[in-house]
Amino acid sequence: MITKPVITPAANPQVPKPVGNYRWRIVALLFFATVVNYVDRTVLSFTIIDDNFKRDMLGLSANQPLTEAAVAEFKVQMGYVDGAFKLMYALGFILIGWLIDRIGTKKGYSIGIFLWSLAGIGTAFVGSLMGLRFMRGLLGLGEASNFPAAIKTVAEWFPKKERSLANGIFNAGTNIGVILTALTIPFLTLAYGWRASFLITGVLGAFLLIFWWVLYSKPEENKHLSKEELTYINSDASEEQAQEKIPWIKMLSYRQTWALMVGKFLADPIWWFYLFWLPDFFNTNEALDQKLDLKTVGIPFLVIYLVSDVGSIFFGWLSTKFMQMGWSLNKARKTTMLICALCVVPTFFASLTNNIYIAIALIALAASAHQGWSANLYTFGSDLFPKSMVASATGIGGMAGAIGGTLFGIITGIVVAYVGYLPLFIFASVAYLLALGIIQLILPRLEPIKKSEIA
Which of 6-15, 141-150, 207-216, 312-321 shows the lowest mean pLDDT across its residues? Predict the structure, then answer.
């Protein structure tokens, strides 16, 4: 009788050896950082519906009435304030993206965290629109570090096939940040005043800075990372020109750069429109049968941004799943982005319906699709560029988005004050399809910059 040999799992080449999961702890750190980033960013969005804040910024005394003319002027001025944030955000993407690639993710991101925390705390002490514009500009400069640092970190810690999911997870922190802001800032503002809201949230950045400095290191320098996981992280390193250096100005000569810039220029302003103006939309839009104030605004935002979190992770997973099924990177990314763009189309009806629940549902779907779009667009930096230039590529793309946001933000204040929200929601409905169409024209196939093109 012939006895068949017993094959143990260790001897069976078909059984993959566990590689560890420390890299997902790094994603958790990025998620926490992004939460704090968005808490500090969105405090103002809820503060602008506080009457005391309006009076302070307009230079009115506590007992002076807020006339329609004063409210209209306030909205116009908030458009300029929002524009100051985004203008410096655009500049910050270039400066800090470049800095991160030169001095490393750990040091570069630390500088960004310090700047935005300083601005957050400083806003608690402003007493004029000029001071508010200055602090929001400084906030934008510092906060621009978040995504270049996070995308570069993902490129350093993950192989290509896992990057869209990793990006989707940390990007979900944007929504949690907005949710926490929506649930806490109205309470803090009503109980302690708007200045306390900025002071308390600004201090969060100091704790983040400590966590980041203590916990982060590159994979090759991390003592807790197994050799197997490090090998897995670098499994497709041979496909990337990791050591190539491209001056950021030269990157404008590549189609890949322009594809990333278009996707950000047209889509990012919509997301910022939601972040900054939704509290005012629910507070003042005449079409709605219910109006929300500081006491009631929290729950709708909880719904909208929880759904957004689902979209960020789901569409990041979907793109990864398509690639695991054997789809090309080009097909997986663009198909997922097309689905996201189509989900946004019905959004215009949110400004027409008088049913607040329908408006919330439509905006939640649109915000979810935007986060899915962003999770895939963020991977362009690591899909198309060498690792050593991921932060700069992301910075250039972010700059384009911030420029679009600056222009859209200034226009929004004027349109909201004198026309209403409908034109803005119509543009939001078609922006993603327009962006994807232009990306397809510029870059019919998503493929990395060739080594011969760099020389």
Answer: 6-15
- 411-419: long-range contacts at Cβ-Cβ below 8 A with a sequence spacing of 24 or more? 411/79, 412/79, 412/82, 412/273, 412/276, 412/277, 413/75, 413/76, 413/77, 413/78, 413/79, 413/80, 413/82, 414/76, 414/79, 416/75, 416/79, 416/277, 416/280, 417/72, 417/73, 417/75, 417/76, 418/72
Spell out the residues 6+ positions from residue 42 whose beta carbon is closer than 8 angstroms to its own: 177, 178, 181, 182, 275, 276
Cβ–Cβ < 8 Å for 386, 251: no
Q: Which two tokens stand for residue 263?
A: 């996707």
- Say what the pTM is: 0.76
CA distance 100 to 335: 31
pLDDT confidence band for 101 (50 / 70 / 90): confident
For CA atoms 158, 164, 168, 169, the dihedral sign is negative
Q: Give the gyration radius of the chain's Cα atoms.
A: 23
List Cα–Cα distances, 189 to 48, 124, 195, 280, in angstroms: 11, 12, 8, 16
Specify the pLDDT at position 134: 96
Architecture of domain 22-215+244-454 in this structure:
Up-down Bundle (1.20)
List the chain domain ranges: 22-215+244-454
**Alpha-carbon separation of residue 168 from 23, 322, 328 (angstroms):** 14, 15, 19
pLDDT digits (tens, 9 = 90+) for 109-148: 999 999 999 999 999 999 899 999 999 999 999 999 998 8
Q: Which residues contact 343 (CB under 8 A, 6 or more apart)?
A: 365, 366, 368, 369, 372
Phi, psi of 299 (to 5 degrees): -65, -45
* Residue 204 main-chain phi, psi, to 5 deg: -55, -35
In contact, 403 and 265? CB cutoff 8 Å = yes
pLDDT (tens digit per residue) in 151-208: 889 888 888 778 878 887 888 888 889 889 988 999 999 999 999 999 999 999 889 9
